Amino acid sequence: IVFRGVTGEGRNGFMALDDIRIRTGEYCQLLPPEADPRFEGIH
Questions:
Q1: pTM of the model
Q2: Residue-wise pLDDT tens for the chain (43 aa)?
Q3: Would you say 1 and 26 are in contact if contact means Cβ atoms under 8 Å apart?
């Protein structure tokens, strides 16, 4: 999963990520390959 966002300058440069789902069994390539995902919080 890659989340990329660019905000503007100043106080109004907000962004939000909504409705994110991680589904069991779907392939997800780790980038960078040496990444160490933590699954303790996923139910």
A1: 0.27
A2: 677 777 777 777 677 777 777 777 767 677 787 777 666 655 5
A3: no
